[in-house]
Design goal:
By secondary structure, the protein is an alpha/beta fold. It has three domains: 6-143, Rossmann fold; 149-207, Helicase, Ruva Protein, domain 3 (Orthogonal Bundle), CATH 1.10.8.60; 224-342, Zinc Finger, Delta Prime, domain 3 (Up-down Bundle), CATH 1.20.272. It is built from 13 helices and eight strands. It has helices spanning 11-21, 37-54, 70-77, 99-110, 129-134, 149-166, 173-183, 187-201, 209-233, 246-271, 276-282, 288-322, 327-342; strands spanning 6-8, 29-33, 58-64, 86-92, 116-122, 139-143, 170-171, 206-207. The strands form two sheets. Strands 1-6-2-5-4-3 form a six-stranded parallel beta sheet. Strands 7-8 form a two-stranded parallel ribbon. Strand 3 (58-64), helix 3 (70-77) and strand 4 form a beta-alpha-beta unit. Helix 7 (173-183) packs parallel to helix 9 and helix 12 packs across helix 13 (327-342). The radius of gyration is 27 Å and the shape is elongated.
Length: 343
Amino acid sequence: MGYSSLKYQNLSAFEKHLQQAAKVQLSRVFLVVSACPYERKKIVEKVIATIRTQQSDIHISVKEAVQGSLQEQINELNTNSLLSGKRVLYLDSIDKLKKNGLTLLAEYTAHPSPFAYLLLGASSSKGLADLYAKGKKELIVCDLSEEKPWDRKDRFKRSLINEAAKEGKRLNSDAVECLLENIGLNLPGLEQEVVKLITYAGERQELTLQDVLALCSAQKSQSVWQLAEAIVWKEGMPRSDEIVDLAMLLPLFSQLRLQLQQGMILSVLVERGAAQEEIVHYLPTVKPALLDKMLLIVKRRRSIFFKRALDLLFEVELMTKNSSFEPDLILDLFLAKYVVLIS
């Protein structure tokens, strides 16, 4: 059965196509275009689930598209295997291929194997015009690359509510809004938060705004601690764009003080030749792997660095309490001066 080239820019419409085609005959070639690899994989899994309704015995391979191995993979698709089921090959990131690689795929798509299914993934549809043109009879496309942010947001809302419902939970609309506000349009991150909410709620069937606020508050505290540790003990300066208000800036300074004080203690011990047992005695809560890393940095920076860093932190904390500067500006000022101390 031949197919006219079909391109869906709406996931619901694409899913509806799968449901209808499953009752007749599926195309042999599908393309999923989305900037998110996780989302591409989820959509491809829906295609594979639909294939299973027609082919109970299938052999699935998932690979990144690589220029040098394309011809071999196409040859395998064109070969009928008597020992394994119908081949299903998912090639992701085809938009990264060079022109001759895309030409191979386009030529295959024009006359796909009757023994196999080829599923393609791309972050963008740019450069795929030849594939579309030659695959006009068989290629079925789900292209979300031009989806409007508000449409994407609405789709994610429905998806999260459905994910919770699968576990017997009702996710309130205000809870969904809060998740989207805190996490953004990040599907894997949002789904991970829903899993945490389900665990947090226990036997309760309703997932509320209060549940989201409680979890987000704990996670922000954790992220502040991680940021402070990264500033003091990692070689590269971390991103600070999550610290946007006074409520997070002051806890960050508190955590920085603890980390710098640990650095001061450790540097003084090292400079007076303290044994490892004595060092561990003074810093009992620090894990051995982190302590080894701290020791390497302390030996380079010495106690004078940590004294000056603590003085700088005190100075910036006073500015925070006595000025009208924006928190992100204050943090940028601290980090700029801190980098000068390191160098």
